[in-house]
Amino acid sequence: METAETYHVPVLLNDSIDGLAIKPEGIYVDVTFGGGGHSREILSRLGPEGHLYSFDQDADAERNADTERENFTFVRSNFRYLKNWMRYYGVDQIDGLLADLGVSSHHFDDETRGFSFRFDAPLDMRMNKRAGQTAADVVNKADERRLADIFFLYGELKTARRIAAAIVKRRGSQPIVTTQDLIDTVQPLMAKDREKKDLARLFQALRIEVNHEMETLKEMLLAATALIRPGGRLVVITYHSLEDRIVKNVMRSGNVEGRVSADFYGRIEKPFSLVNSKVITPSDEEQAANPRSRSAKLRIAEKV
């Protein structure tokens, strides 16, 4: 039986929770519950008068939650609806929010979900298995230009156009329905010394598209900016340059584009001050013990 620890090993656990500067009576949100490692550490520092709301849209994650605790609420939803759920629970302001944007070990290791090129599985990749298009829908229905954009923007693949053309050619005679179908289609275009890295980027790009990850991240961060009270903390762990750029822009300017505005007197207006001007990365020991932490970057900001 899978345990919460094997579901997902929390990355930068102490650094991120320390970054929240938790007050025992505070109200906190963990928008990426997963195996519950970060949430359990937050709860260990909260008093009975404090409260933690934890989000996860994956039904599997809910099994890791101790829903009997009076100061804990599990919200089975996409974190893009953060604002709506906080309004539902009557919460106007929070003292801190944590987001660990990495895909859980569980998703990569589940042979049935199609997140990894290690297993031959249906090409799904949905975080929420109850709704939305699958990765197979994307590769079989999106036009060639859109596919090329997905692979270039979300996977930073230099051969994006050639990969898109190969997919369109293949699906013209036979649908691409499994991870192996996709690998067989694109593998001839990949250099042997970069094959695993490029396949990982290809699967990343499809996962981001299927789950609308960039759009949901932007919505959540803007909602968090409005919800966090002055002195409260925003703590985010990112894993690739696209999401890290969005987080950095919001923390520095209050908007996803990074536009800096000034008031009538020329004073820079920004909702946060950076707690760590230089990103925090996992130690060598953590990277060795948990390879998925190697690309992690931790950013912490305090509401002004």
Structure description:
This protein is α/β, with parallel strands linked by helices and 304 residues long. The model has no long low-confidence stretch (mean pLDDT 91). The strands form 2 sheets. A 7-stranded mixed β-sheet has the order 3-2-1-4-5-9-8, with helices on both faces. It has a two-stranded antiparallel ribbon with strand order 6-7. Helix 8 crosses helix 11 (195-210). The chain has 2 domains: 4-105 and 213-303, Rossmann fold, CATH 3.40.50.150; 129-210, Putative methyltransferase TM0872, insert domain (DNA polymerase, domain 1, Orthogonal Bundle), CATH 1.10.150. The N and C termini lie far apart (45 Å). It has 14 helices and 9 strands.
Record the SSE blueprint:
Blueprint: H1 4-7, H2 13-19, E1 27-30, H3 37-45, E2 51-55, H4 59-62, E3 72-75, H5 82-88, E4 94-100, H6 105-109, H7 135-141, H8 144-155, H9 160-171, H10 179-186, H11 195-210, H12 213-227, E5 228-238, H13 241-253, E6 261-262, E7 268-269, E8 272-274, H14 284-289, E9 297-303
Parallel strand pairs: 1-2, 1-4, 2-3, 4-5
Antiparallel strand pairs: 5-9, 6-7, 8-9
Helix pairs in contact: 2-3, 8-9, 8-11, 12-13
